[in-house]
Amino acid sequence: MMLVAGVDSSTQNCKVVIRDVGTGKIVRSGRAAHPHGTEVDPSAWWTAMGRAIKDAGGLEDVVAISIAAQQHGMVALDAEGRVIRKALLWNDTRSAKAAVDLIGEVGAEAFARRAGVIPVASFTATKLRWLRDNEPANAARVAAVALPHDWLSWRLRGFGPAGDSTLGPALEALCTDRSDASGTAYWNPATGEYDRDLLERSLGHDCILPRVLGPAESAGATLEGAIVGPGAGDNAGAALGLGAREGDVVVSIGTSGTVFAVTDAPVTDPTGTVAGFADASGAFLPLVATLNAARVLDAAARLLGVSHDELGRLAEGAEPGAGGLVLKPYFEGERTPNLPDATGTLFGLTLASATREGFARASIEGMLCGLATGVQAVTSSGVDAKRLLLIGGAAQNRAVRRIAAQIFNLPMVVPVPGEYVADGAALQATWVLTGSRPGWSVETLEAPTLEHHPIILEQYLARAA
Question: Is residue 422 a contact partner of residue 241, using CB atoms and an 8 Å limit?
């Protein structure tokens, strides 16, 4: 039996799965927590990955490994390979003004054409511009910029600062993949090339960027000899793990909410709603992301003093539309629509609608309606959606699944709970090892019966952003 490892270095945790190459069966797994916050010292990811690997039984019998991770995070390195400052994560909104400045200089349509995206606070380019404008001494020291998965793969192969690595600070050995590069806002998914002008406008000078690898191209090997795959951004990793193909739209409800689809051609959206990302298979991954997803339910459950299961039971006690009660759940600002300073708003309070059941229902409906507008945007960009895959921790709540079937007017499948990002990384490692993309099966938890209630989304859209 040959074994491969897949890593998901997400915002909150590091997960590792060890799978059998031939069957795709999970042999063992492990995890470790990441620190909270919107800026994190990358060394915490490295430490957590080591703990998660140990928890998974180690890598001694693993022949290939690949790392998928949260996108966009800015890892700025000096000439000696040292991390210059804490990495700003995707959910750090301090660079909102930098995004506006970059759009003003380049133009929204030009950005969409050149980078597949229009800058928002999440993207790496805006974080570099923030660094240039607010920490000029740190910006001047930047010799290379990496993303979380790039940096972890580099360290895993033995590179890093002198005294803290075996092979030293070889910045030219940094590698990435198409999916993560497309989340920087200075790489062109259509041409497969970095746009150095956009990089220099962001950082203020040129620097080393990771070499972009193909879907089955090896990044090298660990010091122990295991092949290291190119890695991926988290959503592209999930698409691989789910076996998503053209016609599939994936809705993921985790720390953030995402809607993405696999297409054979790049998508350009001059409004900036849909990010024209690349995927990890050689195709493209048009994507809409929301900052407010499962934590909306955390907040609602906390306010009502109930568990998540109890929140679901309360929600099922209210009628679709919650009697006109509508929650715009912008608790952390919002990325789509681009409202970094927005706050949550509850509309439609009346003596009749002001119930625990109504608020529970409005919380779930508001979270899902934000994602439903993402599905509308993706399909309006030309994606021919035939099936919706609902994943993420919140999808395990029965009320969330039932209400989703009332909002999304597409045939729906809920796969069994799984670490699909890590699974996708393991699949990629197998692809690099064998030269063929595996066809591992994904089990279905439920295929909810559609019971479309247009009023839910209609009343949500009627409330101005």
Answer: yes
Q: What is the pTM of this model?
A: 0.91
Complete DSSP assignment for 89-157: PTT--TTHHHHHHHHHHH-HHHHHHHHSS---TTSHHHHHHHHHHH-HHHHHH--EEE-HHHHHHHHHT
- pLDDT, mean of residues 135-161: 98
The model's pLDDT over 205-220, given as tens digits with 9 standing for 90+, comes to 999 999 999 999 999 9
Contact 76, 83 (CB under 8 A): yes
345, HSE (Cβ side, Cα atoms, 13 Å): 12
Instruction: Give the active site residues.
Output: 234
Q: How far is 327 from 345, CA to CA, in rounded Å? A: 6
Nearest by Cα to 337 from 270, 271, 381, 408: 271
Average pLDDT, stretch 50-79?
98
Any idea what DSSP says for residue 66?
E
CB neighbour list of residue 272: distance below 8 Å, 6 or more residues apart: 108, 112, 117, 118, 120, 338
- Which amino acid, 239? A
Contact yes or no for 364/358 (Cβ under 8 A): no
The secondary element (H helix, E strand) that includes residue 347 is strand 345-347
What is the reported pLDDT for 336?
86
3-state helix/strand/coil string of 150-218: HHHHHHHCCECCCCCCCCECCHHHCEEEHHHHCCCCCEECCCCEECHHHHHHHHCCCCECCEEECCCCC
Q: How far is the C-alpha of 388 from the C-alpha of 413, rounded, in Å?
A: 6
Q: Which residues pair with 388 in a beta bridge?
A: 249, 412
Q: Is-contact 120 338, C-beta < 8 A?
A: yes
